[in-house]
Amino acid sequence: MLGLIKLALRNIFRHRGRTSMTLASILFGVVALILAGGFIEDTIVETGESMIRSSTGHIQVARRGLLEFGSRNPEKYLIEDPDKLRKKMAAASDVEDIMFRLGFPACWVTAAPTGPSSAKGSSPTARPGWPVTSPW
Fold first, then answer.
1. Is 37's pLDDT higher than 90?
2. CA angle 57-96-75, nearest 5°?
């Protein structure tokens, strides 16, 4: 066994060009895998953050039946007493912010054919520091 190790070491130092090329190839592959893994992990994290900030939030509360039957008549599934719910949720120790959103399907009409759309709205005064602008 010791003879094989001596033979391997002698060949490594005898063929320095081939050894350095092999080590450079291995190093390049490892660095490429580490970088690709970082990009993939960041993509997954940013996708989650985007979902949280854009539409769904950390926790989404709705009346029972909204997700199954509310796509045609969302007004039938409005929360009856939102202020009471806000106070109850704000009493939890880990809650930092509560914001209500209202979403509903819409249809836009122009000279071209009409098209489906959806609208989402929230109260801009619910978050201090958010700019409140109006196109009117």
1. yes
2. 45
